[in-house]
Amino acid sequence: MVLNASDAAQRPPARGGIVPSWLAVGAAYAWRLLLLAGALYVVGIVLGRFQVILLPVFAALLLTSILVPPARWLRGKGLPALVSTWIVFLAVLGAIAGVVALLIPSVSGDFGRLGHELAQGGHRIERWLQNGPLHVSRSQIDSFVTSIRDQLTKSSGTIARYGLTGASVVLETAAGLLLTLVLTFYFVKDGSQMTAWLSAVLPERWRGRAAAVGRAVWHTMSGYVRGTAVNGLVDASLMASGLYLLRVPLVVPIALLTFVGGFLPLVGAVASGAIAALVALVAKGPVAALVVVGMTVFIHNVEGYLVGPLVLGRAVHLHAVVILLSIAAGTVAAGAVGAFLAVPVVGTAVAVVTALRVQEVPTAPTDPSLTGASDGGRLRPVRAPRRPTAPREVGKS
Questions:
Q1: pLDDT band at 88 (very low <50, low <70, confident <90, very high)
Q2: First-to-last C-alpha distance (Å) of the chain
Q3: Distance between CA atoms of 365 and 24, rounded to whole angstroms?
Q4: Contact status, residue 282 vs residue 114, Cβ threshold 8 Å
Q5: Residue 378: what are its φ and ψ, rounded to 5°?
Q6: CA-CA distance, 208 to 355, in Å (whole number)?
Q7: Which residues contact 213 (CB under 8 A, 6 or more apart)?
Q8: Of 25, 31, 29, 30, which is closest to residue 13 (Cα–Cα)?
Q9: Which residues contact 175 (CB under 8 A, 6 or more apart)?
Q10: In degrees rounded to 5, what are phi and psi of residue 191?
Q11: Contact 233, 226 (CB under 8 A)
């Protein structure tokens, strides 16, 4: 006999007070929560085993939500699916190559200037240590530098092992990127055929809910990508304008980093702002660094209270606290990748639950002629019963 929580709450305590009602209800909820936590733990282990495949699939879905609208527009003009997909892919790759080609000259010059500023900053710190309140001698500084060099020499084996680990990570990243591009190509080209095949495989009674869930997920993911891109573009424009007025080097790379950081809500703006403040500190001094910190706070408020609610409010209905906790949980579970995927995953889960709740149909046994019969997940309008008429007498018209 299964203990129901509501029945346990209504049941009076046992004689002698051995099992009070609150304890029975708590135990009923506790073992259910333990089973749910165990199931989630097993699902997490399985997903972790297949993250090399699952991450490219999820990234491909995000990219597909961007590339499908132009490919669909080209198909509407009469182009075949293969031709329209290739046109969209080549256009995106050409745009990325053009941006990189424009960045290389300016970035190389800025890095050269920044290296010179770093060297000058090192000399200034060295003079401050000697002539400042610490009065560190030249021999003490040389001894400290020599000890660091010796420590690095002793740790060369460990550094080499970390280098091999980093090389394997680079290879895995390259393989995941290639898989993401291939999956994106096929999703854009054959996405409608895949959806039709999946709908045909499912039982007929599930097709209505599956279609509703698919529409909700697609709307959430596409809206999240477009909204986050707009949000990151606004942040990058504000940051680039401020750095240009302050004459801080590496304006374009920091702006691109700010744009990418827009895909990490509440965290990306802080990380990119910290890097910008560090560059300003080295190149222009502490006053410029404080100004950049103030700019970062201003941009964060614009993102959180103006751009974010207007752009992302219709796509991902999540409170700022939910977003922050999601990013924290994703970071603990999967590091930077988890922080990147936390918000779209949680938003998609909320969209799925909402779609399933909307598609629920009452299951109480009723007369279909009075309440309406279900038709593909929808209820037909209820017809009012006919008014009874008096019986006709025999022989009268």
A1: very high
A2: 65
A3: 33
A4: yes
A5: -120, 155
A6: 11
A7: 352, 355, 356
A8: 25
A9: 52
A10: -65, -40
A11: no
User: What pLDDT score was predicted for residue 91?
Assistant: 93
The DSSP-derived string for 148-179 is HHHHHHHTHHHHHHHHHHHHHHHHHHHHHHHH
Distance CA 258, CA 303 (A): 12
In whole angstroms, give the CA distance from residue 157 to residue 153.
9
Lowest mean pLDDT among 106-110, 222-226, 239-243, 325-329: 106-110
- CA 177 – CA 116 distance, rounded (Å): 35
Q: Which residues contact 295 (CB under 8 A, 6 or more apart)?
A: 238, 239, 242, 273, 276
Whether 124 shows a pLDDT value over 90: the answer reads no
**Over residues 29-38, mean pLDDT:** 92
Q: Which has the higher per-residue pLDDT, 381 or 235?
A: 235
Q: How many CA atoms lie within 13 A of 375 on its CB side?
A: 8
Q: What is the pTM of this model?
A: 0.64
Closest CA to 370 of 361, 378, 379: 379
As a whole number of angstroms, the distance between CA 179 and CA 187 comes to: 12
C-alpha torsion sign, points 382, 384, 385, 386: negative
Structural contact between residues 58 and 215, judged by C-beta atoms closer than 8 angstroms: no
Q: How many CA atoms lie within 13 A of 85 on its CB side?
A: 16
CA distances from 111 to 102, 105, 136, 276, 283 (A): 15, 10, 31, 14, 11
Look up tokens 């929560």; give the residue: 33
Q: What φ, ψ does residue 263 adopt, rounded to 5°?
A: -80, 0
Q: Measured in whole angstroms, how far is the alpha carbon of residue 194 from the centre of its chain?
A: 24
CA R_g for the chain? 31
Distances (CA, A) of 257 to 38, 227, 264, 269, 345: 39, 17, 11, 9, 23
Alpha carbon 276 to its chain centroid, in Å, reads 23
Q: Which of 312, 346, 306 is nearest to 326 (CA)?
A: 346
Instruction: Single out the residue of 359, 344, 342, 69 nearest to residue 220, CA to CA.
Output: 344
